Amino acid sequence: MFKKGLAILSFLSFSIVFAQKITIEKKDFVTLNATEFVGFDSFRNYFYIKDNVIYKKTDVELLQYQNLALGKIAKVDILNPLKVIVFYEEFNAVIILDNFLNEIQKIEFSNLETPVVTSAMGISGQNKLWLFNTLNQQIGLYDLTTNQYQNLGIPINDGFQYYQTDFNYFHWIDKQNNWFTCTIFGRIIANGKTEFATKSKFISENKMLFSKDDKLYLSDLSTNKTYEIEIVEKTFQKFYYKDQILSIFTDQGITNYKITLP
């Protein structure tokens, strides 16, 4: 959904003192004792990590999954709630779970016919996974049905400091704060320069959320406008956005807000 080339993003570095403001409406608060909040799925089930255990909190039950043999969880991808992907970077492996967090598939990339060492992972379309292979510094697609891996694009020699994936695109920000996109066909799109923030989320082809100095902002690249989102939290660990719901995760739990983006 981010396939269009984007304008230069240097406007993010402009003073945001003059940013227009977006008001939000509090919906509810969910108590959550977690180390990391992953997000919520289309059914409003909450996923989080505590003590290296993945939890799925539904309205009626609390499910969990852990795999002590594979070390620390590097990432959990819940883009497809019926196929949860758990990435264990230390052991170069991925576990696939069903919607009840039962293990249904294990992939050890070191054991492939052509081994891959991956430092980034995300679910793609057509039963495939996005991977970044550190052996050749290339993005690729791994087919979960055929167990075949395909390199895409050209090597990314400088690596990246942030990445985000969806079914069709692999986005990354390099160490010079340049934003690039790789399509499932291997086309690389240079989108421009952005102000990097460790808490960032691209939410459409021209809008991104980011935090700076414990404040939350929306940048609209199509209009070159930046908006401050008026949250009451003075500090927070993470934010998450989906289906016009903004979730703010703090030590106490999750506050959900209804938000209408301009």
Automatic annotation (TrEMBL):
Keywords: Signal. Residues 1-19 form the signal peptide. This is Glutamine cyclotransferase. It comes from Flavobacterium aquatile LMG 4008 = ATCC 11947.
